Description:
single chain; alpha/beta; 2 domains; four-stranded antiparallel β-sheet; globular
Amino acid sequence: MPGLGPSGDRCDGTTEREEITLNRRNALRALTATAGAAVFAAAGATSSGMAQAQAQAQAQAQGAPDDRTLVQWIDGNATPLSTAEAGGPLDDLAPLRRSIGTATIVGLGESAHRVREETTLKHRVLRLLVERMGFRSVAWEEDWTLGLAIDEYIRTGKGDLAALMGRMSIAWRTTEVAGVLRWLRDFNAGRADDDKVRFVGVEYFATSQVAYDAVAAHVAKADPARLAKAREHLAVIRPFTTDMGAYVRWYLEQTDKERYIRHARQLYELVEALPHRHADRAYALALHHARQIVSFYEHFTLQGSANFAYRDAHAAQNLRWWRSFSQDKIAYWAASGHTAVAPDLRITVLPDTEVRFASVGSYLGRWYGRDYRSIGFTFDHGTVGTEDGGSVAAPPPAANWFERPFGAVRHRQFALDLRAQAPAGVRDWLRAPVTTRGVPELVPDRPYDSFTSGGTLIQWFDVIVHRQDVTASRSI
Length: 476
């Protein structure tokens, strides 16, 4: 499930986003690297953590029902899907609509980034949510300030899609993701403003000058007398370049990061104290900008599991804020490790690397209960795209990975409601400790040495959408 965690991405003088993609693949790469791990160099996993993960995997395998019984249950309850193509008819997704029910937030989690068929199946489900169920916001595993530009593009058509794609995190720079954004723009064309789909980035890892300037503008309007003080703080913390990759690299080299955190927090407190009316949307937006600035500076002082935990906790808070601010029903597009309801998610790379943290979905599940539904997208085998535009082989799941039985089902792609009535053995399997695919790109020659665990299948997901064979997405 790539794309989970933040780190400084490649800092080799390439492009801004190639330096600060901050997805999980690079965070784990930093953990396992022998040199050059800027953000996670000090992170370490314990051998007891490895043993615990392996013990959970063994427990799951030992607790599994008879394979034939399990496959029969899956096959009998699976809804075959006619196509994985994004533009296909939606009628076959009707059972999925019943599974989602009255939920106001739906997580669309992919088991790996840069997988063509998982992305297009997610696109189909997003269409169902938007076209048939009235969802009007897409919260994305992407930076808040870049999300503002993407939102303007899909609402107004203004902006260059290729340029926006070039600024997105590397995980999203594919023709399939471009197709999602283009479809959102086309869907919005000609609609009333209050019926258009919005795009919001729930991350903070590349908070650009846009947020700082918006804060200054609001202070100038709301309380001009405090503008001079706000400018004192901004003089210290406003990025001196639009290249946020270069700025992250510069900030990581600063020995006194507390100075920047202090000014960021004081700026937030200044904005928070500004005069405002009840339900003042301009005030709420300015305060949210300021909150992302604080998160940016705090995040880059953290390492290892603390870094992962901070990111998901704040992404969850940002999503909850958007739900309150917009009142929209929201589709949350991210890696499964974010969307799953997993209070103790563990990412393991053998022999000795592990991080653990509470996922975004665990917060959403606690805050919203059954108003949050988690959909996990999985596959059996194929190829997965890599950041350099290539691909790595992804063999069938290991015997103890939860998606292993799905490969024996007769449908090429299908949806499965995990809350369907099931015999005792299947219920035990659903409630057993869960293990699944990790990050194929990290250890391409050892695909089974990277895996994710922590929790149970019925805890993580309400619905599975599975594809048997997959291909790597095409990079752009």
